[in-house]
C-alpha cells in the first residue's frame, strides 16, 4: 500500500515539476527569441491624468526621505501628482519625517496618519484611498527610489481603457552588500526580465507586485477593493482583476530601485510571508479561476493556476524526494528500468537547470557580463528557499484566511541617504 | 589493481572536484567583485527624444562652438571643421569624420556624407541625397530629397524633410516638423507634426448637446460611463457616447459621431470622417483615422496606425501616436510625438477609408 501511494505521489510530483520546468524554458526561450511586447512605453506626450501616489510605511525612518525626495523629483506635472505617505503606527521618526515634508510641500505631500484600525499594508491602502479619491493610484513601498522618468512610464498604460493595473521592474540597490544580496539580484533579474516580461509578451498574467505600480480606481472598486484579510494583497488583486476582465500590464523599462534583505534571517522571513500569502490566494481563487475558463482564454487560466501554485512547488519537490527515498528503501524496482534512467538523466541535464537558464538569460538580456559567474551560488539560495517555503506551506496560516494582526515588513539596512532631492527640506541629510 | 574503497574515494573526489569547477569563477567574483553595482537600469534618455540633442548642445556650448571664435579641436582631440559662404563645404564622396560647424546658411552640396555630428548655427539647407549622422540646427533645418539621418536631427526652429528622406532614430523640433510624401521615420516629436504643405481642415467640435446620446447595446456596465462589450461595436453617426468602452472585437466610430471617453478594442478601430474622440484609442489590431476626424488622447496600436487628413491632439495638449508601424497621409496633423517602433512612412494617397481587413 505504501509503495503504491509513494509511487502515485512520485509521479504526481514529477508531473508538477515537469510542468513548471517546461514553463521556465518556455518563458526563457520567448525572451530570447520572441517579440518584446511593450506597447505603452513610447507614450511620451499626453494630457497626463491626476495621479495619487501612496507610500505605505511602518517604521521606515531610515529610508522614507529618499523615497519622498525621489517622488518629488519625478518628471510629472506637479499639479497632477499628489503624494500621500501613509504612516501606520510607526514607533520611529517616520511620522515626524512625513510631517516635515508636508510642511515644506503642503500642496504636494498629504500624509495619512493611522493610529487605529486593522494594521497592515492592504488595510492602510484601503483607508487612505478612501480619504484621497482619484482616478489612478500609484503605490511605492517606502524603500523604493523611483527614477525621474518612471511616473509617466507607469501612467502611460492607463490610456488603454482595459488596463486595470500596471507593474514596473524592481532593481536591487544594495547588490554588493553580501552573497545574499547578489543572489537576490540574480533572482530579481530572472523574475522580472524573463518571467514577468514573457507573461507580458504572451498575454498571460503579469503579476501586480503591490509596489512600483498602480491601479485604476474604477477597476479596483469593480473587483471589491483591497482584500485586507490577505497576506499577499498584490497577488490577490492581480487574480481578481484578471478574472473580471481587466488587463495587468508589466513595463520592463520602468525600473525602480529597492533595498533587498541583507541577512538570511530577513530573507527567510520575507519568503515565508510571500509563500503564506500566495497559498492563501491559491486556496481562495484557484476554483474560481478554473470556473472562469469560459470567459478567459485557457492559457491565461493555466498561467493563473501555475502563478498561484508557485509557492507549493518546493513542497511538491520535497514530497517527491521523500517518495523516492521510501520507494528506494522499500526495495521497489522500477518497472521500466531504461525509461526511469532516461527520465532521471533528462531531468538532471535539463530540468534542474531550468531556473538557472532563466536567470542566466536575464543577466545576458541586462547586459551584465560578470555577475552571471555567481550563478552556481544560486544552489544555496534555492535550498534555503525550498526549505523555508515548504515549511511556510505546511503552516496553518498558509491555508486559512484571517486578518493580519501586525505589520509584515522587511528590516531596512540603509545607513546613508542615496541622494538628495532638488528641494529636500532641511534636516534631510 | 586499486582496492574498491580507494576507487570509490577517487571517484567521489573526482565528482566533487568536477562539481566544484563552476564555483571557482563564482568564488572569484564573490571575493573580488567586478560586477556588483546596481544595474544601471533607470535610463535617462527614455521618454525624452531630445536627450542626444540637448547633450550635444551642452557639449558644444562648453567647448565654445557656439561662441564667436570656434576652436579647431575639441577637448577630446576631435577635429572641428568650420564652414561658411567664404569657405563652403566642398563636395566630396568621402565621408567627413570631423565635427562640422556651419556658420551661415550656405547650402550643403548634394551627395555629401557627414559621418559625425554637424552643428548648423543658422538655417541648415541640405542638398539632395546627403547622409548625416546627427544634425543640430540652431534655426530651421531643411533636409534635401533622398537624404538620410542616421541617429538624430533636431531643429530649434522648423524641421523640413523633402520627399525620399529617411529619418532614422530621432527627429525633433522645438517648433514644427513638416514632412513631404515618401518620408521614412522612426520617432518624431514637435509641438506640431504635419504631412504636406497644405493646411488641415479641423472639424469643429460641437457641444455634446448637438448629438443624440448613444448607449451601447448588450454592454456590461463596469462603472458609471465605463462599459465592456463582447463582439463588435458601431457608434452610429451623429451620436455621442458619454464615457469609455472596452470592446472584445472591432470598433467603428461612424461619420460625425462623438466619443467622450476612451476606446479599447481587441480588434481594429476605424474612426470615420468628421468623428471626434476626446479620449484615447488603444487596439491590438490596426487603427484607421479618416480625413476630418479629430482625436485628443494618445493613439496606441500593437499593429498599425493609419492617419489621413485628420488632427490628433490639441496645440495646448500634446499627445502621442505609438505603434509598430505608422502611415501618415497628406494632411495629417499631430500635435506631439509619433513613435513607430518598426518604422513609419508618409504617403500622398487619399483618405484611408478602405483599409484592407488584415490586422
Commentary on this structure:
The complex is a heterodimer of chains A (429) and B (359). In chain A, helix 6 crosses helix 13 and helix 9 crosses helix 14 (378-393). Chain A is of the alpha/beta class. Chain A has helices at 2-33, 64-72, 94-104, 121-131, 150-155, 179-201, 217-222, 233-243, 264-291, 298-308, 313-329, 337-349, 354-366, 378-393; strands spanning 51-57, 81-88, 112-114, 136-139, 145-146, 163-172, 213-216, 247-258. In chain A, strands 3-2-1-4-7-6-8-5 form an eight-stranded mixed β-sheet, sandwiched between helices. The N and C termini of chain A lie far apart (68 Å). The longest helix of chain A is centred in the N-terminal third of the chain and has 32 residues, at 2-33. Chain B has a 31-stranded mixed β-sheet that branches. Chain B is mainly beta. Chain B is built from three helices and 31 strands. Chain B is flat and about 100 Å long. Chains A and B meet through helix 5, strand 6, helix 6, helix 7 and strand 8 of A and helix 2, strand 17, strand 29 and strand 31 of B.
First and last CA, distance of chain A: 68 Å
Mean pLDDT of chain B: 91
Q: How many strand elements of chain B?
A: 31
Taking pLDDT < 50 over at least 5 consecutive residues as the criterion, the unreliable ranges of chain A are 421-429
Largest sheet of chain A: 8 strands, mixed
Shape of chain B: flat
Distance between the amino and carboxyl termini of chain B? 74 Å
* Count of helix runs of chain A: 14
Describe how the helices and strands are arranged.
The complex is a heterodimer of chains A (429) and B (359).
Chain A: H1 2-33, E1 51-57, H2 64-72, E2 81-88, H3 94-104, E3 112-114, H4 121-131, E4 136-139, E5 145-146, H5 150-155, E6 163-172, H6 179-201, E7 213-216, H7 217-222, H8 233-243, E8 247-258, H9 264-291, H10 298-308, H11 313-329, H12 337-349, H13 354-366, H14 378-393
Parallel strand pairs in A: 1-2, 1-4, 2-3, 6-8
Antiparallel strand pairs in A: 4-7, 5-8, 6-7
Chain B: H1 4-20, H2 23-31, H3 51-63, E1 80-83, E2 99-102, E3 113-120, E4 124-125, E5 131-137, E6 141-143, E7 148-155, E8 158-161, E9 166-173, E10 176-179, E11 184-195, E12 212-214, E13 219-223, E14 226-230, E15 233-235, E16 239-241, E17 244-248, E18 251-253, E19 258-259, E20 263-265, E21 269-271, E22 276-277, E23 281-283, E24 287-289, E25 294-295, E26 299-301, E27 304-307, E28 311-312, E29 319-323, E30 325-329, E31 333-347
Parallel strand pairs in B: 1-2, 2-3, 3-5, 4-6, 5-7, 6-8, 7-9, 8-10, 9-11, 10-11, 12-16, 14-17, 15-18, 16-19, 17-20, 18-21, 19-22, 20-23, 21-24, 22-25, 23-26, 24-27, 25-28, 26-29, 27-30, 28-31, 29-31, 30-31
Antiparallel strand pairs in B: 11-31, 13-14
Amino acid at each position: 500500500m505504501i509503495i503504491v501511494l509513494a509511487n502515485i505521489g512520485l509521479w504526481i510530483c514529477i508531473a508538477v515539476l515537469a510542468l513548471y520546468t517546461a514553463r521556465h524554458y518556455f518563458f526563457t526561450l520567448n525572451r530570447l527569441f520572441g517579440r518584446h511586447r511593450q506597447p505603452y512605453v513610447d507614450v511620451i506626450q499626453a494630457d497626463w491624468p491626476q495621479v495619487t501616489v501612496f507610500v505605505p510605511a511602518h517604521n521606515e525612518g531610515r529610508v522614507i526621505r529618499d523615497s519622498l525626495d525621489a517622488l518629488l523629483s519625478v518628471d510629472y506635472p506637479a499639479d497632477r501628482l499628489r503624494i500621500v505617505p501613509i504612516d501606520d503606527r510607526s514607533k520611529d521618526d517616520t511620522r515626524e519625517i512625513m510631517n516635515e515634508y508636508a510642511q515644506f510641500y503642503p500642496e504636494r505631500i498629504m500624509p495619512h496618519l493611522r493610529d487605529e484600525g486593522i494594521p497592515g499594508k492592504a488595510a492602510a491602502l484601503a483607508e487612505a484611498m478612501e480619504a484621497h479619491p482619484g482616478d489612478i493610484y500609484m503605490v511605492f513601498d517606502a524603500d523604493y527610489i523611483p527614477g525621474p522618468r518612471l511616473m509617466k512610464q507607469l501612467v502611460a498604460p492607463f490610456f488603454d481603457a482595459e488596463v486595470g493595473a500596471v507593474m514596473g521592474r524592481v532593481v536591487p540597490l544594495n547588490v554588493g552588500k553580501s552573497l545574499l544580496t547578489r543572489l537576490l539580484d540574480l533572482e530579481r533579474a530572472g523574475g522580472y526580465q524573463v518571467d514577468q516580461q514573457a507573461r507580458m509578451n504572451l498575454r498571460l498574467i503579469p503579476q501586480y507586485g503591490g509596489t512600483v505600480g498602480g491601479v485604476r480606481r474604477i477597476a479596483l472598486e469593480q473587483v471589491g477593493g483591497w482584500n485586507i484579510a490577505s497576506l499577499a494583497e498584490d497577488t490577490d488583486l492581480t487574480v481578481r482583476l484578471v478574472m473580471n476582465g481587466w488587463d495587468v500590464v508589466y513595463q520592463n523599462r520602468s525600473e525602480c530601485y529597492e533595498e533587498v534583505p541583507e541577512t538570511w534571517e530577513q530573507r527567510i522571513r520575507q519568503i515565508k510571508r510571500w509563500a503564506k500569502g500566495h497559498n492563501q490566494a491559491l486556496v481562495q481563487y484557484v476554483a474560481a479561476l478554473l470556473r472562469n475558463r469560459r470567459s478567459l482564454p485557457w492559457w491565461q487560466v493555466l498561467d493563473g493556476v501555475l502563478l498561484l501554485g508557485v509557492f507549493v512547488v518546493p513542497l511538491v519537490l520535497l514530497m517527491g524526494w521523500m517518495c523516492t527515498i521510501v520507494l528506494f528503501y522499500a526495495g521497489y524496482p522500477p518497472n521500466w528500468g531504461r525509461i526511469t534512467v532516461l527520465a532521471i538523466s533528462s531531468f538532471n541535464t535539463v530540468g534542474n537547470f531550468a531556473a538557472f537558464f532563466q536567470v542566466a538569460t536575464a543577466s545576458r538580456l541586462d547586459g551584465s557580463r560578470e555577475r552571471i559567474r555567481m550563478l552556481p551560488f544560486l544552489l544555496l539560495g534555492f535550498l534555503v528557499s525550498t526549505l523555508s517555503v515548504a515549511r511556510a506551506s505546511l503552516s496553518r496560516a498558509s491555508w486559512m484566511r484571517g486578518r493580519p494582526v501586525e505589520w509584515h515588513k522587511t528590516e531596512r539596512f540603509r545607513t546613508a541617504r542615496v541622494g538628495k532631492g532638488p528641494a529636500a527640506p532641511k534636516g534631510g541629510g | 589493481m586499486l582496492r574498491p574503497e580507494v576507487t570509490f574515494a577517487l571517484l567521489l573526489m573526482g565528482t566533487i572536484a568536477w562539481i566544484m569547477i563552476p564555483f571557482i569563477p563564482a568564488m572569484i567574483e564573490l571575493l573580488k567583485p567586478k560586477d556588483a553595482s546596481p544595474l544601471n537600469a533607470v535610463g535617462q534618455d527614455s521618454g525624452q527624444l531630445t536627450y542626444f540633442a540637448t547633450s550635444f548642445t551642452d557639449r558644444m556650448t562648453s567647448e565654445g562652438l557656439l561662441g564667436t571664435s570656434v576652436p579647431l579641436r575639441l577637448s577630446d582631440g576631435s577635429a572641428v571643421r568650420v564652414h561658411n559662404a567664404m569657405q563652403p563645404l566642398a563636395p566630396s564622396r568621402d565621408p567627413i569624420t570631423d565635427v562640422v560647424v556651419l556658420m551661415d546658411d550656405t547650402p550643403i552640396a548634394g551627395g555629401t556624407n557627414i559621418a559625425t555630428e554637424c552643428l548648423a548655427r543658422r538655417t541648415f539647407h541640405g542638398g539632395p541625397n546627403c547622409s548625416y549622422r546627427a544634425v543640430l540646427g540652431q534655426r530651421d533645418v531643411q533636409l534635401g530629397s533622398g537624404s538620410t539621418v542616421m541617429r538624430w536631427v533636431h531643429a530649434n526652429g522648423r524641421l523640413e524633410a523633402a520627399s525620399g528622406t529617411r529619418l532614422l532614430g530621432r527627429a525633433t523640433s522645438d517648433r514644427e516638423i513638416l514632412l513631404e510624401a515618401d518620408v521614412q521615420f522612426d520617432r518624431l516629436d514637435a509641438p506640431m507634426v504635419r504631412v504636406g504643405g497644405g493646411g488641415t481642415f479641423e472639424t469643429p467640435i460641437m457641444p455634446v448637446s448637438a448629438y443624440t446620446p448613444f448607449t451601447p447595446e448588450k454592454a456590461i456596465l463596469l462603472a458609471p460611463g465605463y462599459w465592456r462589450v463582447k463582439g463588435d461595436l458601431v457608434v452610429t453617426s451623429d451620436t455621442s457616447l458619454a464615457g469609455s468602452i472596452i470592446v472584445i472585437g472591432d470598433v467603428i466610430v461612424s461619420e460625425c459621431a462623438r466619443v467622450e471617453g476612451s476606446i479599447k478594442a481587441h480588434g481594429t478601430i476605424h474612426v470615420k470622417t468628421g468623428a471626434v474622440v476626446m479620449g484615447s484609442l488603444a487596439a491590438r489590431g490596426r487603427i484607421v483615422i479618416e480625413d476630418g476626424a479629430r482625436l485628443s488622447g494618445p493613439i496606441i496600436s500593437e499593429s498599425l496606425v493609419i492617419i489621413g487628413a485628420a488632427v490628433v491632439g490639441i496645440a495646448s495638449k500634446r499627445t502621442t501616436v505609438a505603434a509598430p508601424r505608422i502611415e501618415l497621409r497628406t494632411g495629417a496633423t499631430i500635435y506631439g510625438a509619433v513613435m513607430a517602433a518598426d518604422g513609419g512612412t508618409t504617403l500622398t494617397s487619399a483618405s484611408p477609408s478602405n483599409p484592407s481587413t488584415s490586422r
